[in-house]
Write a structure and sequence with these properties.
This protein has 203 residues and is an alpha/beta fold. The protein is 40% helix and 16% strand. It is built from eight helices and seven strands, in the order H-E-H-H-E-E-E-H-E-H-H-E-E-H-H. A five-stranded mixed sheet has the order 2-1-5-7-6, sandwiched between helices. A hairpin with a 2-residue loop joins strand 3 and strand 4. Helix 3 crosses helix 8. The termini are far apart.
């Protein structure tokens, strides 16, 4: 059984206190193998809160979200869509890297529902602290973490969504899906189009 110590965030909207508390979270078993908790980053008053799936190998080592290949693609897409990455609050639905070892490599594994549910209080705490005007959900795991397991990204991608605690929300693919796409240029253009549509919700 995973240790439940540190599974609940403190009752605060101070991001610094939340980040410090999350560093000791043992709410699911992922903390045992991950290098560290990767908490969200960005200004407390960010108008846009971006949610991904989980940290990858590079994020796990660096302790920062979206610094690997998917993060570089996301930076470029945000710039093309008219967002300033430095003004966004960027986080993940799950704060520890889930992986399996193949030789010396650590291969990403999709987090399960148990891990998503265990981490959800931290994501909700970030939402309460940041109070964004727009929540942008990247990928099915991120969307289901806040909208429930029945949410289908294929059905609702790019649509305005009703999300408690946020004036506006939208879900699109995770940038890693763009990197894996057979036609990467087409997938990237569609991703940027989604980000531009999300930006219009801020108006």
């Amino acid at each position: 059984m995973p240790d439940s110590r540190g599974a609940e965030p403190p009752d605060t909207t101070d991001l610094g206190r939340l980040r410090s508390a999350a560093a000791g979270c043992q709410g699911c078993a992922l903390y045992q193998d991950a290098t560290q908790t990767v908490f969200g980053e960005g200004p407390a008053g960010a108008k846009v809160l971006v949610v991904g799936e989980q940290p990858g190998d590079k994020e796990d080592v660096a302790g920062e979200p979206f610094v690997g290949p998917a993060g570089k693609l996301l930076d470029r897409a945000f710039e093309e869509a008219g967002f300033d990455r430095q003004s966004l609050y960027v986080t993940n639905a799950v704060k520890h890297f889930k992986f399996k070892r193949e030789g010396k490599r650590r291969i990403h594994q999709k987090p399960g529902r148990t891990e998503v549910v265990a981490c959800r209080p931290w994501l909700l705490a970030e939402l309460r602290a940041v109070r964004p005007d727009l929540v942008l959900l990247l990928g099915a795991t991120a969307a289901q973490s806040l909208l429930g397991p029945d949410f289908r990204l294929t059905r609702h991608r790019g649509e305005p969504l009703d999300l408690p605690g946020a004036p506006a929300a939208m879900a699109t693919v995770h940038p890693s899906a763009v990197l894996r796409a057979p036609d990467r240029d087409e997938a990237y253009a569609a991703f940027v189009a989604d980000l531009k549509a999300a930006g219009k919700l801020l108006g």
